[in-house]
Amino acid sequence: xxxxxxxxxxxxxxxxxxxxxxxxxxxSPDIDESHRPxxxxxxxVKRLAEEKARALVGSHPAHLIIGSDQVAVLGERIIGKPHxxxxxxxxxxxxxxxxxxxxxxxxxxxxxTGHCQVDCVPFTVHMRTLDTARIERYLRAEQPYDxxxxxxxxxxGVSLFQRTEGPDATSLIGLPLIRLIDMLLAExxxxx
Length: 192
Fold this sequence. Notes:
Elements: E1 4-6, H1 11-18, E2 24-26, H2 41-54, E3 64-74, E4 77-79, H3 85-95, E5 99-110, E6 116-127, H4 132-142, E7 161-165, H5 170-173, H6 177-186
Parallel strand pairs: 1-2, 1-3
Antiparallel strand pairs: 3-4, 3-5, 5-6, 6-7
């Protein structure tokens, strides 16, 4: 098996990939993650996932490189990482009683053959009706300012959900393992 490389500095993605019990290393790609004019959210995450993987080909010429990117969509609007308490509160107030769809782009690039598999895995979170006091208590408790949508699904953020739907719950955290396993198997990787 070619060495496995995760093109990410995300601790969440690293923890998810470790579940597969395959040896891997991580390297952070340096790409422009700007949204292009009139680019659909699905196309954005697929493009960025592939660009992240391709950015590391030169330094990792005989690897299977995993790229991933995620956005949250509320209505027609892409919502990103809030970075601040105020923006997180604003995002959660806007999401109250609504549905937020997380689109996770995934790419697996064989840097030796050039073969690249790219996909997008959706996952929808239907939020409870939330008041300002509850949102502020949650934000103080978990401080999810580096998370798209302003919550940590793997933590207390689940208390904000009414229900979820989608083919792979790990996509909500940022790396859809079920789809990744399909891609790895197509490359001949033996999963323990």
